[in-house]
């Protein structure tokens, strides 16, 4: 359980459910599209790979994660997979032109050199191979996240992906009424916490200083929301989120299909 920070949402923690279901939705969107050789970057506990492998039985799976704990769990779950512990970029242990699909959900915002990251993914994809990528909409952030190097607007993400990939399709993942109610309650709760930040450390302090207080306050906030709004949280499932062509203020995450 200690593996799960608020940045690695868990299927086992009830207060994580709204964000867990939001991330899970992305796998549901691609499960009927993938085949052949697939690489997931940052798979965490591996629930996404379970969804994909249950739908497509003939997948050849590679997985790259920086966490020793995650890697051991992945090896236990997927004994035939090529499981690699490594910080990315680069993808030094993945051959060029070897992957039909690469999956990077909620990862790119954690990468300092995002251009190098995407170029490495482009390298390992086969011709006409596809990267499926999600990342939060910067315009929907309720506070600065010290675990993220940056967050993207639609225009920024479109420009970056167009500079590297032949075809770039950027759509949005948004929420139903109950999912957006949770978002609004979370936004209000975070705003109450930030009122105590009289020196505006959240905006100006170095990232490494903010990581521990952010983690503790974020976990406290999610637990508190579960106590106060359990009826909202228990109503949220993967069907509370859906794909939209509109990438505007209602978009929670961007969903990208980038083709080499």
Write the layout of secondary structure elements.
Blueprint: H1 17-30, E1 37-41, H2 47-55, E2 60-65, H3 68-77, E3 82-85, E4 99-105, H4 114-124, E5 125-136, H5 154-162, E6 167-175, H6 177-194, H7 201-204, H8 207-228, H9 230-233, E7 241-244, E8 253-259
Parallel strand pairs: 1-2, 1-4, 2-3, 4-5
Antiparallel strand pairs: 5-8, 6-7, 6-8
Helix pairs in contact: 1-2, 6-8
Structure commentary:
- The protein is an alpha/beta fold and 260 residues long.
- 39% of the residues lie in helices and 21% in strands.
- It is built from nine helices and eight strands.
- Strands 3-2-1-4-5-8-6-7 form an eight-stranded mixed beta sheet.
- α1 packs parallel to α2.
- The longest helix is centred in the last third of the chain and has 22 residues.
- 38% of the residues are buried.
Tell me briefly what this model is:
This protein is an alpha/beta fold and 260 residues long. It is built from nine helices and eight strands.
Total helices: the number is: 9
- The CATH homologous superfamily name equals Vaccinia Virus protein VP39
* Distance from first to last alpha carbon: 38 Å
Strands of the widest sheet, in order across it, are 3-2-1-4-5-8-6-7
> What proportion of the residues form beta strands (DSSP E)?
15-25%
CATH class: Alpha Beta
Would you identify the CATH architecture? 3-Layer(aba) Sandwich
* Biggest beta-sheet profile: 8 strands, mixed
In total, the number of strands is 8
String of helices and strands:
HEHEHEEHEHEHHHHEE
């Amino acid at each position: 359980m200690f593996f799960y920070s608020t940045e690695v949402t868990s299927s086992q923690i009830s207060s994580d459910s709204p964000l867990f279901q939001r991330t899970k939705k992305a796998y549901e969107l691609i499960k009927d599209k993938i085949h052949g050789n697939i690489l997931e970057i940052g798979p965490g506990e591996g629930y996404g790979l379970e969804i994909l492998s249950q739908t497509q039985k003939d997948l050849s799976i590679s997985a790259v994660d920086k966490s020793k704990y995650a890697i051991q769990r992945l090896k236990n779950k997927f004994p035939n997979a090529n499981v690699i512990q490594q910080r990315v970029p680069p993808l030094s242990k993945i051959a060029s032109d070897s992957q039909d699909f690469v999956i990077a959900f909620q990862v790119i915002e954690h990468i300092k050199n995002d251009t190098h990251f995407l170029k490495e993914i482009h390298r390992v994809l086969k011709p006409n191979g596809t990267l499926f990528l999600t990342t939060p909409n910067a315009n929907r952030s309720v506070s600065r996240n010290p675990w993220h190097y940056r967050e993207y607007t639609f225009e920024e993400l479109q420009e970056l992906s167009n500079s590297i990939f032949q075809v770039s399709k950027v759509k949005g993942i948004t929420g139903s009424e109950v999912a957006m109610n949770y978002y609004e309650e979370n936004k209000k709760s975070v705003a109450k916490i930030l009122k105590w930040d009289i020196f505006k450390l959240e905006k100006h302090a170095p990232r490494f200083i903010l990581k521990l207080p952010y983690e503790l306050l974020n976990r406290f906030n999610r637990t508190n929301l579960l106590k106060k709004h359990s009826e909202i949280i228990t109503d949220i499932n993967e069907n509370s989120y859906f794909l939209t062509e509109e990438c505007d203020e209602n978009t929670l995450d961007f969903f990208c299909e980038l083709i080499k």
